[in-house]
Amino acid sequence: MEDFNSQYANHSKLEQLKQFILEHGTYIELKKGEQFTIQGKVNHRGAYIEHGLLRYTRVDEKGNIHIVGYTFSGEFTGSLCTLIEPNQPSLVTIEAVCDTKICYIPYLKVEEFFATNVETMQVKCTLI
């Protein structure tokens, strides 16, 4: 059975988005334990993972931390709720499990990419 995340990371329409991020984004290395997104804070950027591993966690109302997902090398990461609604705080914290190289880009630039033409607008529809 194909990995759930890979269904999206390898989707043919998302190749354009990947190339856009790699050409216009900023490369950084997150050290183990470093956070990319913090639950409850607005995150204005998404990323493509060059290599490494990111963990998604959520703190419940009792203060318990729950692991709710992972993203791996060759996959996208970020707060989809913020991409859809720019002022929506992230529902999760995303942190590096090991040293992880990503290429991040502000969602504003991603929105400009989506608005380029009908084909790129379809890329957005694939995500949401």
UniProtKB/TrEMBL annotation:
Segments forming domain Cyclic nucleotide-binding: 22-102
InterPro entries: cNMP-bd_dom (IPR000595), cNMP-bd_dom_sf (IPR018490), RmlC-like_jellyroll (IPR014710)
Superkingdom of source: Bacteria
Parts forming coiled coils: none
PROSITE patterns listed in its UniProt record: CNMP_BINDING_3
Pfam families: cNMP_binding
Protein name: Crp/Fnr family transcriptional regulator
